[in-house]
């Protein structure tokens, strides 16, 4: 799995692009590529957990203009190996 961390700044462009971005995320979750996503409580950024490899994540990001929108910065991408919880297909890790 990969964790994508975003950092936000105040930007009307970011807020305008958010609804279409969230629709894309809903489709990615329905397809089993996205495990969870959401903003920090203070709206300074967000975390997205993907069950894909890096080339697929890059393709997902390239297809979504949100990641290049003013006010959105990719703060990092890290590989993550969960040992407790569920994967995108609902399988429990033990």
Automatic annotation (TrEMBL):
Domain of life, source organism: Bacteria
SUPFAM superfamilies: Dimeric alpha+beta barrel (SSF54909)
Domain YCII-related stretches: 12-81
Family the UniProt entry places it in: Belongs to the YciI family.
Name the UniProt record assigns to this protein: YCII-related domain-containing protein
Organism: Streptomyces sporangiiformans
């Amino acid at each position: 799995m990969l964790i994508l961390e975003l950092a936000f700044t105040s930007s009307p462009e970011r807020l305008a692009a958010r609804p279409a971005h969230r629709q894309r995320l809903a489709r990615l979750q329905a397809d089993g590529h996205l495990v969870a996503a959401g903003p920090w409580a203070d709206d300074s950024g967000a975390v997205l957990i993907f069950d894909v490899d890096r080339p697929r994540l890059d393709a997902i990001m390239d297809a979504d203009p949100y990641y290049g929108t003013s006010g959105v910065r990719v703060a990092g991408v890290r590989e993550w190996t969960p040992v407790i919880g569920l994967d995108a297909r609902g399988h429990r890790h033990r």
